Structures are given as structure tokens and as C-alpha cells.
Amino acid sequence: MSFSPITHLRHVDIAVPEYDKQVAFYGNNWGLTDVGGESNLTYFAAEGSPEQYIVRVRRADEKRLDLVSFGAADPKSVDQLADRLAGANVTLISEPDVLQTPGGGYGFRFFDLEGRVLEVSADVETRTHRKIEEREAIPVRLSHVVLNSPEPEKMLAWYVKHLGFRLSDTLVHPHMGGLMWFLRCGPQHHSMAIARCPHTALNHVSFEMRGLDEYMRGSGRLIRAEVPKIWGPGRHRAGDNTFTYFHDPNGNTMEYTTELELLDEDTWHPSLYDTSEPETSDEWGTADSMNEWISKQMFNDPDKGLFQAPPA
């Protein structure tokens, strides 16, 4: 098996101009727990997750994806990855060292092929968490992140080569070719995906709910609160997970999901799913059919923070 240092997705950090509205959205609407921070910086945890935080929000003049953080098995894996990346002329933002973020740990940051900031860390102290109870409609943990790319095939090759991700499935269109590639770093069908888009941007961040009932209750709560809904509720074919997509106060797309498929690493073979078949987008048939308007809502604004390390 190829070198696979990544174990899981830790957190996704964003910068936004409407900072106060974003903080209120995550705490009051989305169901995350404010675990502190500092001036113009707030960390949010999920009650069911051992991660210190799963989202960080920073105040900024322009919206951007600050970084995506992944876990590694141990400090040795972190050092090995840093050496491999440096040897492949990948630009390191920092060398492996003790992290100064909640929970500490040992890690480093670097740019991906298109200039996003990635972080890989190990030995981060776990947070005291709890079992999410029946009918408790708040996120259990972070599920996955999807990134928009104008050259997704190159991005796919980069993440497979340098970070050891494996391709699970691909969405294709008869006339447009590949549209989305689902990548895994463990048994979960995908921890990240790459979507074809005219520009580099964040597509969406997804949060795992306890089960179907909690997923529907959470989706309904947001709909009743008039949080802008883009698409759903429904169930995707690739990954077999449920979906309801909403816009946050800064126009980023956030998803509630549950029941994401777990794969047998030794027997799984990637499939091509035709998006011209309505069941590919929504097996249930309960959501609106995928259309150009829905796609554009997930294009997001072009990321203006590429190849720029965030100040925190």
C-alpha cells in the first residue's frame, strides 16, 4: 500500500467579514459549542467529537478558507510527511513543531497544489465529549469537506500522490465528464471531495448527525428558522448519505448529513455515477432535481487567500 499518513479530518477554519453573524449562526442555529478563543477568533466544537474544535471562525475583511486540518497517527508520520513533501518541492509554511492551538499536538502547515493551507498533526489532546442522545438534533462530529477546483484531475492526482488519499467514487456527466471525485483516508466513503468549478473555492463543509431522525429534526429546525436552504432533504447515491445544504451568513455552504457509507478497504472498487440519472443526486426523490442554480450556489466566491498563510 502507498504511504498514507492521514487518519481523519480534524477541523475546517474559515475567515469571514460578517464575523458576529457567523459566530451566532454556529452557536444558535447550527448546534455547535463555543469553546472560546481570542479577539476576533472563535473555536467551535461538536458535543459528540473528541476533537478540541471542528470549526474555527476568524474575522477578516474578505471571506476565505483559512485552512483544512487533518490528523496523523503519530509524530513520526508527521515528520515523514514533511520530509516527503519538502523533497517533492511542496511549499511548507512551517516545519513540524509543537502547535499553539487548543489541544496542542505536533504538526505543520503547507500549501496544496492550488494554494490552500493544509495542516497535518498528531498527539492533539482529546476533548471531553459525550454521546448525543436520541432526538438531539445537533452535529456529532465533522463529516467531510468538499473543495472546488478549476483543474480537479490535477488536484486529485496531487492528493493521492502526496497525502495518500484513495479514490472511492466519481460523479460523471455524459457530456461534461468528471464532476466530483470522492476521496477517503479510512473506512468512511469520503473525508474530502474535489468538485469541478470555474475557480478555486470552498464548496461545502458537512456535519454528521446522530441518525435519520436527528438529521431530519435538525434540517427542519433550520428551515423553520428561515436559514437559506439550497438543496434537500435527500440521499446521495455515492456514499449513500443524506443531505440538506444551507447557506451560512457569509454565503458558505454547510451540510447536515448522516449514515455515510463505510467501506471495506480490501474489496472496494471505485464506481462512476452518471449525474444525468436523477437517482445519482437523490435516491429518495425528495429533493429538487440537481440543476444549474443549485450548482452555482455551491461555487462560492473565488478564494482570495490562496498561497497566503492566515495570520493565526
Automatic annotation (TrEMBL):
Record-annotated VOC domain positions: 8-123, 141-259
InterPro entries membership: Glyas_Bleomycin-R_OHBP_Dase (IPR029068), Glyas_Fos-R_dOase_dom (IPR004360), GlyoxalaseI/FosfomycinResist (IPR050383), VOC_core (IPR037523)
Taxonomic superkingdom: Bacteria
Protein name: VOC family protein
